[in-house]
Write a structure and sequence with these properties.
Length: 325
């Protein structure tokens, strides 16, 4: 870069220096700023640095001055606090739908939002390597395509696949594309799902985003607006255990008081508890998709959760238990 051009970027380099190299524990002096600029082949005098610091303050940067043996300065305010970045890094690490490669890329970008010192702290807490991650690298761009279709009020077409026992992708519908009206994206049980309206059968369905391929935004406008307006996406996700399809019905459960936390975690605090057996148990009515995944949720609590009604749902659990034995 020519020296004149670098000189014109002096304030930019000073801002970057404050962002990456200063905090309360690492203030910087005017002399150190001048030395840093000199390494970049930029001339600077003390008076010009004072003016640059004032310019940064006018731009909204909270530059704090410390007077000890000498005057030093550091940047106090940042777009993200270190604790906030840790939360974001944890979320990226925990997300199964983000591939290992993309997780590492995102974490590197998050580290760039803080000082070099805090970035090293974030790096020391990164444990992506052995986590179970999606293998579909295109999922990151699938999400973007679906968002664009939702914003543009357009249908999308895509291929949908399952894995076979040889870990090969097998396209559903013999490779014929699905055409769906996308209405929402939800993150449920460590996976990303698209909620959409299938005009062919006239109902709302959901699809795993990491199993979608070759997504195209269609020119046709979306269907199903009235149907989607009637559902609460959060409630929808709670009804479908593991987003596994099943017959939606109201099920009465009798639960031991010890698993109140698990019931609230699954169905929310608005679920009404009806105490029974002198407060040792409680009953709840929940609207769920009765499926093998729902039964497995009941199974994990042993006798602490019992299906009281409807009878066919209780019989289904009994039949599944016999088959397991």
């Amino acid at each position: 870069m020519a020296r004149t051009k670098r000189q014109n970027l002096k304030l930019y380099f000073i801002i970057e220096l404050f962002k990456k190299k200063t905090d309360e524990e690492h203030p910087i002096s005017i002399s150190e700023i001048i030395d840093y600029l000199s390494e970049l082949d930029i001339k600077a005098e003390r008076k010009s640095i004072y003016r640059d610091i004032e310019a940064m303050r006018e731009l909204g940067y909270d530059i704090i001055q410390i007077h000890n043996k000498r005057f030093t300065y550091y940047l106090a305010n940042r777009d993200f606090e270190t604790a906030e970045l840790r939360l974001l890094v944890d979320a990226v690490q925990a997300s199964r739908f983000i591939t290992r490669k993309k997780s590492n890329e995102l974490i590197r970008k998050l580290e760039a939002l803080t000082t070099d010192y805090d970035a090293r702290k974030l790096s020391s807490q990164v444990f992506v390597t052995n986590r179970i991650k999606a293998s579909n690298e295109s999922i990151y761009y699938n999400v973007d395509s679906i968002h664009n279709a939702i914003q543009e009020n357009r249908k999308i077409s895509f291929l949908y696949f399952d894995w076979d026992i040889n870990k090969r992708k097998v396209l559903r519908r013999s490779g014929e594309k699905y055409v769906i009206s996308p209405w929402a994206l939800i993150w449920n049980n460590e996976n990303y799902y698209m909620i959409g309206y299938d005009s062919e059968v006239g109902m709302i369905k959901h699809y795993r985003v990491d199993r979608m391929m070759s997504i195209d935004v269609c020119g046709e406008k979306r269907d199903g607006k009235s149907d989607f307006r009637e559902i609460d996406v959060a409630v929808y996700a709670r009804r479908f255990f593991g987003m596994y399809d099943g017959e939606l019905t109201t099920v009465t459960l009798s639960c031991a008081k010890e698993i109140a936390n698990a019931v609230i975690d699954r169905f929310g605090t608005e679920t009404r508890f009806r105490p029974e057996d002198g407060g040792k148990r409680f009953e709840v009515d929940v609207n769920v998709a009765v499926s093998p995944v729902f039964y497995s949720w009941v199974f994990q609590f042993g006798g602490d959760v019992r299906i009281m009604a409807p009878q066919w749902a209780a019989d289904g659990l009994r039949s599944m238990a016999k088959e397991f034995i």
